[in-house]
Structures are given as C-alpha cells and as structure tokens.
Amino acid sequence: MVKRMLSEFESYDLLKQYGVPVPEHAIVKTPAEAGKTAEKIGFPVVMKIHSPQIVHKSDAGGVIVSISSKQAAEEAFDKIVSNAKAYNPDAEIKGVIVEQQAAPGLELIIGGKTDPAFGKVLTFGMGGTLVELMKDVTLRILPITEETIRQMIREIHGYPIIQGYRGSKPRDEETLVQIMWAINCFFAENTHVVEFDINPVRLYESGACIVDARIFVDDEAVEKVAKERPFVPVEYFTPRSIAVIGASSEPKKMGYAVMHNLLHFPGQLYPVNNKRPEVQGLKAYASILEIPNPVDMAVITVPAKHVPSVIEECGQKGVVMAVIITAGFKEMGEGGKALEDRVIEIAKRYGTRIIGPNCLGMIIPPKGIDTTYVHESPKPGNIAFISQSGAIVNTVVDWSIKQDIGFSAVVSVGNQADLNFIDYLRFVERDPKTKGIILYVEEIQDGKTFMKVVSEVAKTKPVVAIKAGSSVKGQAAASSHTGSLSGSYDVYMEAFRESGVIPVHTLSGTFQVAEMLATPKGYPRGKRAVVITNAGGFAVLSSDYAERYGIDLITLPPQVLKELNDLLPEFWNKNNPIDLLGDANEKRFEQTFSVLAKYQDCWDIAFVVGFPNLVIGSEQFANQIIRFSEKTENMIVGTLLGGDSMERGRKILKENGIPIFDELDFTFRVMGRILWQRFR
Ligand code: ADP
Ligand code: MG
C-alpha cells in the first residue's frame, strides 16, 4: 500500500470543493512574503509548518496562533522553520501556511478510516487536544444517510454542549450536519482517500469552520464489491453416508476419536485405512474409491501432504462435502497456503465443497453427525454455534453438557478456505431445528457481504456474537488519528449492531442471550419494563441494574396502582419495582400478575425476581410465572436467586420455554444488550 499524506493546503482545497468551510489560507516561502500575505488575509492570523514529514505540527513547534502584526508574521516564519528543523532535521520544509484565525468555538473531530473487513468508516466526536483522553467518539460504516449523521451527533456524550449546556447558547447543529454530510460524500466518492482526520472543526452559534485537516490517500486503493455466492444445498450438511479417511483403531490418534464420535451416526459409515482390514469393528477400505456404495461426505484426518490426492479421490467418488480436520495449511505460512490452494482447486473441479481445513468440522446432534474429536457429543437442541476457534468448540460443548444446553448444529470453521461464515449462516438460517445462532468471531474476511447476509438471517433468527480481540494492542496510540480512537473492535461492534447481531462479551453470556431469544416469545417488543419481586433488597438492585443497562422501568399508571392497592397489604411500596413483601404467597403473586396482564399494553417486559423462602416454594413460584406468561403476549423473564432450593423452579421454567436466570445483574445485562441492539 502506497499511502501518502496530503498537505493541509491540498486537504483544504479538496474539502472546499465539497462545500466544507475552510479558513482563507496561502503558502509562503520567505518571511517577507509571510508578512505581506498576513496583512492581506487580515490579522490575527495563524501560521503553520508545511512539511510532508511533519504529521503533528504542534508537536514540532510548528503552529503559532494570534499573530497580529506584519513584523510578528515575519518573525513567526523564522521561528516555525527553525523549530521544525530542530524537531526533525530530515524534514523537507515546503514553506509555511498563513491562515485566517478562526474565532474560538466548540472543537469537534470528524474522521474517516478504512477497516480491513468492513471498508470505509466515518467517525465523529469531541475534538481538540483532549480527544484521546475523552474518547467521546462514535462511528458508522459507510454508506450512511443524513439521518445517520444526525444520530451520530446526538449520541456522543458531549451532545448537551452542542444543544446549549447550563446557560450557554445552542450551537449550529444544522451546519454541523451539512458539513458531516459533505465530508461523508467526499470520503465515499474518492476511492483513493483511505483515511482522514479533521481536528478540530469549530462549531459556533451560527456556522462552523475547520482549522486543520489531514488526508491520507492510497492511489492503489480499490473498493471491494460485495457479492454473495449461491447457497450450499442443505443436504450437503446432512449426508446419508460418511467415509472417515485416516480412520484408526489406535486410541491416541485423531482418526480414532473422529471415528469413535461417528459410531452413533445412523447412516452408512465407512472407515478408510490402507493398512487395516477393520477399524473399530467396521470393515475398512484401502481407498474411498473401493467403497461399493455412494459416499456423500468425507472426513479427512490424514497428514496435510496427502490431502490433495485424497481430495482428488473424493471428487472422483462424487463426495459433495469434505471435512478436512488436518492442520498444516494456510496457518503455517506460504508453503501451507500453496497446499491449501491446490486442495481447493482440485475440489472445485469436482464441485466438492470443503469445511476447514484445520478445524474440528461439524456436529449436527439431531442427525447423529459428529465429525469432531470432542470428548463427548453434545445433546440435540435449538442453538447453532459457529466458531472460528476449535478449542472454544471443545470447551463450549463440554460445558453445554453440564448446563443442559443442546445444539441444532456446531461448526468449527477452520481456515475457511472454501465454506465460510456466510455459507454456514445460510445453512442454519434454513435449518428448521435452529432457533438461535451464536457466532464466535476472530476476523471476518468480507465484512460487507457478512453484514448483508447476517442482517437477513437475523430477521428470522436471533444472532448473538462474541468477538475476540477487544484489546487495542498494536494500534498507534500516540496520534490524534481517528484510527487509534476507534479500533477495529469498535467497527465490528457497530457492524454487529447495524446488522441486527447482538454482541455479547462472555461465552456464557452468548448462550444466555441466545437461549432467551430462542424461547417461543423471542424478542421483547419494547423496553418498558415492570419488576415484580418479594424481596425489597432485590427491588432496589433491580432499579439500579435497569438504569445501568438502559431498561425503562415504567411509572405505574393510576388504574394499575388502584387495583394493586385493593389487593396488596396497605404498606406495599406503591412503586415499580413492585415489592410484594417477604410474606407474599402464591395467591398474592397470582393476583398481581392478573392485574399486570390486564394492563399489558402499558409495559413490554416483566422481570419476576424471587428468592428462596418458606412462604412460596420454587415450584409454586415457577408455576405462577408460567401462568402469568400464558396470560400475556409480553415477555416474562424469571430470575430465581439462590442455590439448590431454587433449582427445581428454574428447571420447570426452562422446560416451559421461559427465560430464566439465577443472577440479577446478569438478567438485566442480557436484556440490556438485546434492547440496545433493537431499540437504540
Ligand atoms: P496539528 O498538526 O498539531 O494538529 P493544527 O493545525 O490542528 O495542528 O493546529 C493546532 C491547534 O491550533 C488547533 O487545534 C487549533 O486549536 C489551533 N488552530 C490551528 N489553526 C487555526 C486557525 N486557522 N484558527 C484558529 N485556531 C487554529
Ligand atoms: Mg489538529
């Protein structure tokens, strides 16, 4: 990439063409010229160094403001040049810029960068010299609309300052919208502009002016055009016959474990091993070509160097899907990459699709398919899990057994040499067993297509994602570049949000969210909530958590209050969270739920929070929650706090498809995540 920085001068001229207000300016080469030009522009002026090697002019002593006489301008010229030379003796000094001094104003930053996965991104935030400190920035992936720009402006923390804070006059928000729109057009239309940083933009009560601009261009930059491939037929993922190539009888070998996990497969299973006539009790074949019947899928565990010839045979045999578990491909560098390319080329010739290489393959529990070497196959269920890490698949599967979580599909994507996230998403989208989807993402290859596809998938099935790599390691932190203000992780988060994916930060969290959304009621229809509990302490905590995670606790309407007053003890708290008090029995819960169900139009979610006590057992509690849920269209979320005594209730709720948690903070955090994505 041949990236170069345009000078402030060139940047101003470019932006001016798009209608962005820039200060009057000129380049001068001598002190005398500086004096004359300053006089012509009108005092006060600002003078700045003009050198391709000096990115941050202030750091080099290359900016002098408030120059108010001809003589001062002449002196400033010499000062700036000598400072710059001292700062970087090798810097080529092309002259000094003299520019009109803009009046002080609210300093904002507008920036742009090109993300390797998602392409061009526009950023906006509070600017000036404290940008890195404040980190009050927001971003959007292009293309965007003017309405998006308005949202960006409103969502930074500093927005109240733009609106007029504590007696200060409101700023010209409309002009800001126009400038950001102009800058967005400039960025979108100029393919070779890969990054820029306008800091600061000064916003006034009327009008605005930019007083610095850095634009980076790459003449070789090309925009990636997103294009989706045809869907892989669902049948490819549900073979009737499977051959294990490299099947083994030696318990320490990969080919043993894979074979072992496939022994429960109800279709035809053929071990292929050129040294043994029998593997794990089944007749073995020396080559896949010797199997007398058709083979739909091949699972390959032989060493990498043999994989091309094995794939060739699979192709001849008419195998439609090959799962290459073997490692030693692209992840090993150039030699491995060449081998991988060869494998793909051969597979293409025969129309054989490839999962992996360097993966665990896939598990389809409802069909008894497990090509992996996980310790124990997971149970069937309604969650699909697509993971970029094999180790995480192993861990999650192990843990799911203990947690009683089942899967409709588990896929370890490996190197994604052929099939990738997009193909797997399309598969689980069409798979009737899948009700919720979890992604573990490290890096996405083609972000634009991913966004398009995942937003379609998310319309019918909830998609929850965990993204690895939130640390900003390796980012140039020293500059006021927008690149360092918003790392790649932030771009992923924005991409997820925009395409309807719910980002979650912990693995167990992703499962809680996915399970909750996979329940029959799915998503809540809004963020107005009520909390019903028998524990005063948890009522208070619920308010705290609701506020923290952006859940609106409604004010109970007078009619609801009245009806509750009629049935609750005189000293109930008359508020939301509704505290039914520690002596609340089944009947009190039932009556309260009836009132709430009757007025279900005034709320969207009910959080029912219970703790172990002798007045109401966990089973009775669960049954009341189920009846409540039957009486309303709205979402009911249970939180039964406590240890073993509450386990029975939690199990009943789970079996009845009601979201259930055992930790209060978590309940609200999970719901907050969902609401953030849906109703921000
Ligand atoms: P740097 O390369 O260090 O970012 P800038 O061009 O942003 O240099 O100048 C540093 C600071 O000087 C700006 O943040 C702004 O506060 C002030 N400044 C620069 N140019 C002007 C101008 N034309 N009018 C008013 N203030 C300016
Ligand atoms: Mg600047």
Automatic annotation (TrEMBL):
Record InterPro entries: Acyl-CoA_Synth/Transferase (IPR051538), ATP-grasp (IPR011761), ATP_grasp_subdomain_1 (IPR013815), CoA-bd (IPR003781), Ligase_CoA_dom (IPR043938), NAD(P)-bd_dom_sf (IPR036291), Succ_CoA_lig_flav_dom (IPR032875), Succinyl-CoA_synth-like (IPR016102)
SUPFAM superfamilies given in the database record: Glutathione synthetase ATP-binding domain-like, NAD(P)-binding Rossmann-fold domains, Succinyl-CoA synthetase domains
The enzyme's E.C. designation: 6.2.1.13
Enzyme class: ligase
Key words of the record: ATP-binding, Ligase, Nucleotide-binding
Pfam families noted in UniProt: ATP-grasp_5 (PF13549), CoA_binding_2 (PF13380), Ligase_CoA_2 (PF19045), Succ_CoA_lig (PF13607)
Gene3D superfamilies: ATP-grasp fold, A domain, ATP-grasp fold, B domain, NAD(P)-binding Rossmann-like Domain, Succinyl-CoA synthetase domains
PROSITE patterns found in the cross-reference section: ATP_GRASP
One MF term in the entry's GO annotations: acetate-CoA ligase (ADP-forming) activity
Identification of the protein by name: acetate--CoA ligase (ADP-forming)
Lineage: Archaea, Methanobacteriati, Methanobacteriota, Stenosarchaea group, Methanomicrobia
